[in-house]
Structure prediction request, 882 residues.
Amino acid sequence: MTHRPTPKVPESWEWFGLAFLLLFMACVPALFGGRYVPTVFTSILLFFILGALFDFMLGYLNIVNFGIAGFLCAGAYASALASKFWGVSPWTGLAIGGLASLLVGLFTGLLTLRLRGIYVGLTSLFVMETLRFGISNARDITRGVSGLTVGIFPPITGISFSRSNPLAYYYLLLILVVIAYATLEVVVRSKIGLVFRAIRDDDIGVSVLGLDVVRYKLLNFGIASFFVGVFGAFYGNYLGILVPTPQEFGIERTVEILTIAYVGGRGTLWGSLLGAIALIGISEVLRDINQWRLVIYGCFLIFVILAFPGGLAGAVRHVALKFHLWLGAGRYEIAGAKETTIRSKGGPMP
Amino acid sequence: MLTIPVLLQLTVDGITRGAMYGLMATGLAFIFGVLRIINMAHGELFMLGAYVMYFVTVGVGLPVAAGMIIAAASLFLVGVALERSLISPLRTRLGDNWLIDGYVLTIGVMVVLQNIALIAFGAREYGVAGFWPGRQEIGGLVIANERLLILAEAAVSFAILGLFLSKTDLGRAIRATADNTDAARVLGIDARSIYTITFGIGAALAGLVGAILLSTYPAYPTVGGDILLKAFVVVIVGGLGSIWGAMLTGPLLGVIEAFSTAFASGGWQNTVISALVLSVLVLRPQGLFGRQVTRP
Amino acid sequence: MDMRVTNIWAGYSGGTDVLKGVSINARGGTIVGVIGANGAGKSTLLKTICGFLKPREGDISFDGRAVTGLKPDRLAAEGIGYLMEGHSIFPSLSVEENLRLGAWSFRSDSARLKRVLERAYERAPILNTKRKVKAGLLSGGQQRILEIERLSLADPSLVILDEPSLGLAPKLVQDVFDRVCELRRSGATVLVVDQGARHVAAVADYLYVLRLGQMELQGPAESFRDRIDGIVREFI
Prediction:
């Protein structure tokens, strides 16, 4: 069977597109006054990075981390409680949140070492739920479902982070997101990323080559959980109050993040930005008919899984490819090939 | 407080409550046993069954048995529709590796069903006080009549299911497909149809249980979340593919829950159970009655 | 049933072809054996014939009818019995239930069902003794007997056996190959693939030697019998 070189969109285009989007994200809120735009954009950014972190595990190790909201929870509460009981500054809290979540992440990773497929997802789900229930029950410390109030970030270089200054939070988040995302991209494009993908495709084969699969899995979980924790800590300070409900830190939150990652396009990292923009954009437009928003989320997810596995990123790539070829980049025939077709194994299926 | 009568009462309470948990898990276990996916929309199918039961018994005024049958039948159709329109195409497209995507697909279904119910029925809880008020007292132990009714309904339902699986050709074909799909196909069993029927039966079971438990778990759009979690707990500890495992593990967990509620201060029983599930996942992932799942 | 396989190229997804232009003919009522080392492609060949794998090139026909693209679900209807490699019993079903499923294609004909079951129990008394036992509890040899009886129930005109001696003690292997001869006596065509080259050579009418996806040797089995040791050494 001969292989033709598959035409691809030049990588420089992808970077350019991402940079443009980020620039857009950076400038727009400053142009609009008031609370609304910064708040929406903050949501978009937050869900973008959480989606990307979820995709870091999904797209590169094929692990559906159904407990990602648990990492968020650990980060948020660790930072908030450290502030409350030990007077730790929320700035340091970001690191503490990251570390706490890292512990949860490594714990989950260790638990799932010998498990495959669905069991990994289930285990992470129950770690999340155990954590959530535990926090809910330890009312004396965490105030449980009554809610734990969290302070604002202390001012830095004269910038105030009071709740009436959403732009400050937004740009802080933007900086954190850029750092986190850059780290993910660096890792994914490095040899480590290559090993991740090899493990995803054939982990036994990888271990036969002498690579310590365990170490790489834990590395992946560790990086992802650390950053989720940092953003969890940010979230606490941003929101001002923490409650251990499923919507915040349980299944519902995980499903939101998962949907954004899938709809954005798994295995792309940047796809989550598109996913976040699309889904949160739709949420805002449908603000008044809120239940329909979630129905649409669900339908999007079903549609992406069934018919459009490349997600929005795949669609964008497809369009960009057509444009690229139209510009006369080569003499390839595409014959309608989608870039992310998944082939089944050789044989017919029921 | 640790007197024998108290302990016995706790045990009885635990068993009757746990039997409900076991029921919740059967549809999930049944589907997993054959199709090998976790149906995340299981709770929502339960919810729909509860709504149907309410409508049939309270709205229309038909007897309890009619409600159960109609709930089971209508949810069977829903299950078949879901399998044919969503799950089967996914499996055809992805081949052997469809399980994880299938899991996520059912998450989508879960979200859609939950919110459509919210739009269609509103957030109000549609419950009944009970189909058989009062209680029995046997030698110092107290059992609510409603619980006994639930146990009886469950027993009948499961006897029927058991007979279907062991005495009919289709039932045997389903069990064979669960054991070894390829070997079944080679004998002429149409695996596609088996999958569809199985999903339909799993949905019917979920709906049936929703109908049976209406007095304890009223019909409202988000009731499914709680049910799913409880079903998970039973099914993981009992063994993912095993219906009998679910039925036996349910009461066991009910007892553990009853005792933790009594002896640990408010709310901790959830944490205890969650931690128990984690231990099982780590130490014995196949649960008490399931088959090996760790890597070679 | 005559079987004709022509110029099959097949492999698993994403990889190179395991079979490179393999052709086999099996004349009705004969036993055709395919031997070769592990990885030679014997199982791949059978899986392709039975529809579990789609060939990239090549044709398959039964009794002159082209059937390339056959799905495994159609095997029983075509009158083909297939013994899969490894375990193919249904462990949680009883021996009797396992057997009954062999009659799936005529399950509503209860007279015929009863007849074939009785015959199977006569041929394999051990199954009769263990009728109600869960098949997963049987020994490897007993399971193999169950599998073969199960596929015989529908009176197949073509029987395809993938490694029937796998995991069996030597005495049992002999029993299995005796059963293979019986299948031919009842008029079926048998295509058997096995590691045990000598056993295959002893029962077959025609033999093929497969190596690295290609037919190295073929011919009437008698011509191989005396040099079988040499062949084993060289190819297996």
Q: What stands out?
A: Residues 333-350 of chain A have pLDDT under 50 and may be disordered.
